[in-house]
């Protein structure tokens, strides 16, 4: 579709209030799902990230890499196992997680941002002890070397932001003895957002957002208050793998992040639609202190 100059100018002026609102603020994007696999969507996401950075928003990209990890495990003849919704991580799998996430996946994203005209620096939770973790203990399951976050040191991320680079963060953590842990990317993104005092955390998903019925596209829930989350879990609206995603967002908000949004990463430029339009996209989660 051809866009004339007047329409192009109106699009920019309509975006101005939102650019002003977020200027100088930190926004964390948790990147995963189909948007991380489809080449066209990957390029669209990186373009959005670069645009946000260029207009003065401190953007932090936190990524997982489940399909890439599974693919490498298959090549190496190691079986992928999932326990309680999380990847069981034995010592061999932990090595592959570190190699794929902090290596190939992370550097591929840094490279793509560069190709698209941006500047990025890849980090992982091991760097500078940024993400301190310990073994995830659960009475029901043994997850192996899956970790839960003890603390996040935001200083390395802030240093990268101060130099006008985009931090691209792989979600592996480390304990005081040097043991590396596989960290859930949703959890890591929320903890990083809280440590940075972020304005917003945006989670890219493979569904439109939180829905009353996943088979009914019209049942999207556009907005919830974090105090509603437990009742939505009890009623079964939030279930399965959606629970840790939503609970991570809740924790981020209770730790001072202004709002959290889950959006459909399958829609090109969904990040820009969410941030630079009145209606937004997906499901907005906020607490009492959120901006109106």
Describe the structure.
The protein is of the alpha/beta class and 292 residues long. It is 39% helix and 21% strand. It contains nine helices and 14 strands. The chain has helices at 5-22, 39-54, 66-75, 91-115, 155-162, 185-196, 229-234, 242-254, 270-275; strands at residues 26-31, 58-63, 82-83, 86-87, 120-124, 131-135, 147-152, 166-170, 172-174, 180-182, 200-205, 223-225, 259-264, 283-286. The chain has an eight-stranded mixed β-sheet with strand order 5-8-2-1-11-13-14-12, sandwiched between helices. Strands 3-4 form a two-stranded antiparallel sheet. Strands 6-7 form a two-stranded antiparallel sheet. The two termini are 34 Å apart.
The portion of residues forming beta strands comes to: 15-25%
Low-confidence stretches: none
Count of DSSP strands: 14
Largest sheet, strands/sense/barrel: 8 strands, mixed
**Strands of the biggest beta sheet: in what spatial order?**
5-8-2-1-11-13-14-12
State the separation between the terminal residues, measured CA to CA.
34 Å
Class derived from helix and strand content = alpha/beta
Order of helices and strands: HEHEHEEHEEEHEEEHEEHHEHE
């Amino acid at each position: 579709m051809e866009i004339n100059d007047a329409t192009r100018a109106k699009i920019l002026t309509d975006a101005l209030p939102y650019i002003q609102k977020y200027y100088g603020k930190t926004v964390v994007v948790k990147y995963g799902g189909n948007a991380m696999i489809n080449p066209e969507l990957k390029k669209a996401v990186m373009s959005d990230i670069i645009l946000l950075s260029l207009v003065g928003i401190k953007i932090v990209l936190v990524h997982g890499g489940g399909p890439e990890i599974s693919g490498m495990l298959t090549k190496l003849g190691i079986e992928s196992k999932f326990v309680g919704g999380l990847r069981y991580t034995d010592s061999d799998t932990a090595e592959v997680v570190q190699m794929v996430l902090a290596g190939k996946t992370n550097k591929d994203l840094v490279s793509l941002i560069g190709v698209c005209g941006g500047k990025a620096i890849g980090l992982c939770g091991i760097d500078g002890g940024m993400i301190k973790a310990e073994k995830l203990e659960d009475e029901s399951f043994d997850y192996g070397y899956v970790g839960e976050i003890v603390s996040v040191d935001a200083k390395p991320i802030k240093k990268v932001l101060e130099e006008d680079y985009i931090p691209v963060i792989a979600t592996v953590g480390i304990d005081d003895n040097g043991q590396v842990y596989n960290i859930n990317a949703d959890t890591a993104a929320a903890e990083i957002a809280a440590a940075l005092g972020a304005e917003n955390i945006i989670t890219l998903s493979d569904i439109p957002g939180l829905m009353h019925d996943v088979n009914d596209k019209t049942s999207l829930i556009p907005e919830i208050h974090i105090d509603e989350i437990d009742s939505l879990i009890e009623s079964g609206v939030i279930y399965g793998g959606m629970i840790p995603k939503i609970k991570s967002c809740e924790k981020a908000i209770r730790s001072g992040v202004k709002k959290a949004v889950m959006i459909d990463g399958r829609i090109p430029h969904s990040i820009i639609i969410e941030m630079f339009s009145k209606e937004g996209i997906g499901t907005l989660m906020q607490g009492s202190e959120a901006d109106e």
